[in-house]
Amino acid sequence: MGVIKFLGLAALAAAAPLEQRAKKPKSFLKEVGNSTWIIGNEIWNVTQNRQYADQLWYKGKDRVGDAVGHYVSYNGAASDLNWTSAAIVDSDTDWINIKFTAREGDFHWVIYDDLPGAYQYFVNHNLPTLGEFRTLWRLDNASFPRGRTTIKDGVLPALEEYLGATNVQDETWQKADGTFLTKYDWSAFIREQDFYGVYGDEVGSWYMNPGKDYYNGDHLKQELMVHRESKTGDAVQLNMIHGTHYQAVSRDAFADGKVWGPWLWYLNDGSKDNAAQRAKKEEAAWPYKWFEDKAYQSRGKMQGKLVLSDGRPAAGAAVFLGDNNNASISTLDQGQGFYYTTYADKDGKFSIHDIRTGTYGLYAWGNGGSISDVTTNFTQNNIVIADNKNTNLKDLTWKVTDASKRIFQIGAFDRKTDGFKLSGPTPYEHGRITKCPGNLTYTVPTSKSEDWCFGQSALGTWRVNFPVENATTSAAKLTVSLAGFSQGSSADILLNGVQVGNITSASLLNSQDTYRGATRAGEWRLLEFPVTKEQLKVGGNVLDVRVTRTTVVRGWLWDSLVLEWV
Ligand SMILES: *[C@@H]1O[C@H](CO)[C@@H](O)[C@H](O)[C@H]1NC(C)=O
Ligand SMILES: *[C@@H]1O[C@H](CO)[C@@H](O)[C@H](O)[C@H]1NC(C)=O
Ligand SMILES: *[C@@H]1O[C@H](CO)[C@@H](O)[C@H](O)[C@H]1NC(C)=O
Ligand SMILES: *[C@@H]1O[C@H](CO)[C@@H](O)[C@H](O)[C@H]1NC(C)=O
Ligand SMILES: *[C@@H]1O[C@H](CO)[C@@H](O)[C@H](O)[C@H]1NC(C)=O
Ligand SMILES: *[C@@H]1O[C@H](CO)[C@@H](O)[C@H](O)[C@H]1NC(C)=O
Ligand SMILES: *[C@@H]1O[C@H](CO)[C@@H](O)[C@H](O)[C@H]1NC(C)=O
Ligand SMILES: *[C@@H]1O[C@H](CO)[C@@H](O)[C@H](O)[C@H]1NC(C)=O
Ligand SMILES: *[C@@H]1O[C@H](CO)[C@@H](O)[C@H](O)[C@H]1NC(C)=O
């Protein structure tokens, strides 16, 4: 058998009929009725119906039970895909590739004989323009009582807790003791996931998505990962391959043939250590050599060094490779193609490997540390990635403003609330924003980031007292950088009593971040307001951010507030 393993299929076929020589895979697809199929191997099997796979046999029990099972859907439950046919489209001695066909595209399960789980991928043919596209498991809650992401690990709240509580908004309940229950607690930064899923003492069901280049969005892209279904009690394991949970708009049209995945859906005995080991193995094996798809296999690499125009290295900068020439949407909202993220090192150097061939835009912005003062970002279009080639961009100059022109800055300019009061320890908590004060005073230069709160919503005024030391001969600019914004609260910004700007729903789209309990980041917004030289005076000045309208848990997450001469 060892010898046969190393022969190509063509060689085998020439020698004798395949069935006589080659070992046949034990993994199977069985059509058992009108639009009902059973797929699996000797370790597990799944019963797939027209929409839902409603049985998962593993370790002697059906692990779907009364739950909904497995499905693929877009834009909410009205659009769960309907499978019209299934076939084995490829196989070898120890695996099969099963394709389920729907009007919108094909969902594949690649099943190896010895694998508890399957590799899965989706090939688009006719998906509509959409924001949300996902595959998921809704599983038996007795088998899978717990959830695990890189941020949170614990027992999913029981359905019973929801039943006794009052719904206050979108999937959020208040309990009698005043605390909140919300599925959004189980969100995470999707590109930082090693593995995640639901598990118990007997079994675990995990997603491992190495590569992650088919996800929409940048480093700050967040998604709901697992949760308790609040009507049925199902244990839910989501695979949000295109999502909008913490965004304003992210709607994309996709090319026929766009592939999401393959990722691994992995079953085990519930051990997180075992899952962690498997995830490492998958990451090392990515991009998967077994996946016969020319575009998937065609990849190159890229490197470069970002240097700020004042000579400093762009230490730790966030580097994003995304849509070419698409300044109309934010890096978080890009999602029609393939996306790569990394961070520059302390010298500003960065590299990304295994990038799909194509032409990209390169974007960079500050991620705190020694470049926390940098308010500008870097963009270079027309970056060509060729198969098996290294694109060396060498030194790239990133234009920054003159640091000597800074009058004051509150908070690191990094698109996150990091450093502000209450910004941690976790990045999600419904209602934490209500713990930020209505009124506060920040005095330059003695106050620190911790004296400013991460989010603003309550009526009142956040006042900045700051000195201007020399005579003002030029105009200035006020930069308001928000890490997130949910419509419902508004503020006027006044300089020495005169309005110079505002934060309002009239000029900012709603995003689903602040009100869903995001406390670290959401959809980044940048507001810039001109200040005339007459509006500043030598000596003490006062800048007020005065909340004029409030809606509970709605408002904005602060990134940074900067005043500088121009
Ligand atoms: C199969 O089921 C569908 C509905 O689920 C029905 O419309 C169709 O007539 C059935 N076909 C056969 C051959 O039973
Ligand atoms: C699926 O697994 C169950 C439990 O091990 C087993 O009884 C059943 O025969 C399997 N189905 C198929 C089609 O192999
Ligand atoms: C699948 O079929 C059901 C009807 O059984 C329908 O309600 C649903 O919209 C269909 N899904 C899609 C994506 O068209
Ligand atoms: C599990 O789901 C059932 C409904 O199928 C529900 O009655 C039960 O409360 C759920 N258990 C938990 C812990 O939520
Ligand atoms: C930019 O991205 C949006 C969203 O995917 C898309 O609608 C638009 O066509 C893109 N523009 C360009 C120039 O690629
Ligand atoms: C870069 O900064 C400018 C403002 O200086 C902003 O309009 C733009 O959206 C930013 N670009 C990216 C890709 O973040
Ligand atoms: C903020 O200060 C104003 C004026 O002093 C006061 O009326 C208001 O109640 C304060 N708001 C809060 C939330 O403390
Ligand atoms: C003095 O003000 C000018 C603008 O009028 C500014 O460019 C300069 O950096 C300031 N110098 C100091 C030392 O603050
Ligand atoms: C509010 O700010 C927007 C820019 O963000 C500006 O267009 C508008 O004029 C401002 N309105 C007021 C009343 O200052």
TrEMBL record:
Protein's UniProt keywords contain Lyase: yes
Q: Which GO terms describe its molecular function?
A: carbohydrate binding; rhamnogalacturonan endolyase activity
The Gene Ontology biological process terms listed for this entry are: polysaccharide catabolic process
Q: Where in the cell is it found?
A: Secreted
Q: What is any one of the record's Gene Ontology cellular component terms? A: extracellular region
Q: Where is the signal peptide?
A: 1-15
- What is catalyzed by this enzyme? Endotype eliminative cleavage of L-alpha-rhamnopyranosyl-(1->4)-alpha-D-galactopyranosyluronic acid bonds of rhamnogalacturonan I domains in ramified hairy regions of pectin leaving L-rhamnopyranose at the reducing end and 4-deoxy-4,5-unsaturated D-galactopyranosyluronic acid at the non-reducing end
The cross-references to InterPro entries, in alphabetical order and at most eight, read: Carb-bd-like_fold (IPR013784), Gal_mutarotase_sf_dom (IPR011013), Galactose-bd-like_sf (IPR008979), GH-type_carb-bd (IPR014718), Polysacch_Lyase_4 (IPR051850), RG-lyase_II (IPR029413), RG-lyase_III (IPR029411)
Q: Name one Pfam family in it.
A: fn3_3
Please name the CDD domains in this protein's record.
RGL4_M (cd10316), RGL4_N (cd10320)
All copies of domain Rhamnogalacturonan lyase, residue ranges: 311-393, 406-563
Instruction: List the SUPFAM superfamilies hit by this protein, alphabetically.
Output: Galactose mutarotase-like (SSF74650), Galactose-binding domain-like (SSF49785), Starch-binding domain-like (SSF49452)
| Entry EC no(s) | 4.2.2.23
Q: Which UniProt keywords apply?
A: Carbohydrate metabolism, Lyase, Polysaccharide degradation, Secreted, Signal
**Top-level taxon:** Eukaryota
Which EC class is the enzyme in? lyase
Tell me the protein family, please. Answer: Belongs to the polysaccharide lyase 4 family.
Which PANTHER family does this one have? RHAMNOGALACTURONAN ENDOLYASE (PTHR32018:SF1), RHAMNOGALACTURONATE LYASE FAMILY PROTEIN (PTHR32018)
What is the name of the protein in this document? rhamnogalacturonan endolyase
Species in which this protein is naturally found: Ophiobolus disseminans
